[in-house]
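Researcher: I've been going back and forth with a colleague about how Chemotaxis protein methyltransferase might be arranged in three dimensions. Neither of us has a model we trust, so I'd like an independent prediction. The organism is Dyella flagellata, in case that matters for your notes. Sequence below.
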Amino acid sequence: MATTAVSDFNAAVSSSGGPSLGDAEFQFLRDFVYRHCGIALSEQKRQLVQGRLLRRLRALGLKDFGGYCQLLRQDPDAELGELASAISTNVTSFFREMHHYDLLVDELLPRWLDEKKNGGRVRIWSAGCATGEEPYALAMVLAEALERTGSKVDARILATDLSPQALEHARAGMYALDRMGGISDERRRRWFLRGEGRYEGYACVHPRLRELVTIQPLNLLHDWPMRGPFEAIFCRNVVIYFDKPTKQRLFGRYAGLLEAGGYLFLGHSESMHGLSDEFDLVGRTVYRRRAV
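Model: Here is an independent structure prediction for Chemotaxis protein methyltransferase. You can compare it with whatever you and your colleague have in mind.
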């Protein structure tokens, strides 16, 4: 084999045994992901992107990244969710950042249910719901508050995500028992049905929780069909992927959907400092929209 041929061959194959992500393909993917997902990929993410997208190439029967880029050019929307799923990390759990739920239980839900008791409604949005742990945890505390107060308020939770795999998992509402460590024994008994037979080792969310949660696909950078207003929006561990201008636009759009005095919950490593003058910090990663 000629030296040139060996060099070309080595350039086309990665250390993992698959095709290598070339400069032109990586630059295209960086531009594409930023334009459609708001995620800014640095050069340091190149190996991560290559490794994660190799599985998509195999699933699609593509021989190289050039073919994958061509697929994105031809039909961006068809593959966008799969691409976003591959390059982002959906780390979630039930009752993660418990202080947020404590605020809901101790203060916010009782106040909202009382204020809306004469025909009002309560709406909470889980933006970036991943595999569903967050919205179902919200549904538990909401259902308990409704039962405790005897309220007939029309209360619901909207759960959205870009990832089709995550949404499929969320809709199934089936979770391995070893992923339910954040749920108290009392809540496990009340809100989950234990699996049997081939579902041994799993638990399924109670039908009552499903009644409270609507799960829909949504790209936060695209148009939003809902009009609000929401009492609260949970957008936790999502904006860490975005650059400053994208965060600013997103926070402005959230403010437009929250009622005056509504709440925005961010992740533990996220902050709105210097990004918006429409919110006040009122707790650990809890922001309240200023009254107009």
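Researcher: What would you highlight for our discussion?
Model: I'd start with this: The CA atoms of residues 68 and 74 lie 10 Å apart. After that, consider the following. Confidence is low (pLDDT under 50) at residues 1-15.
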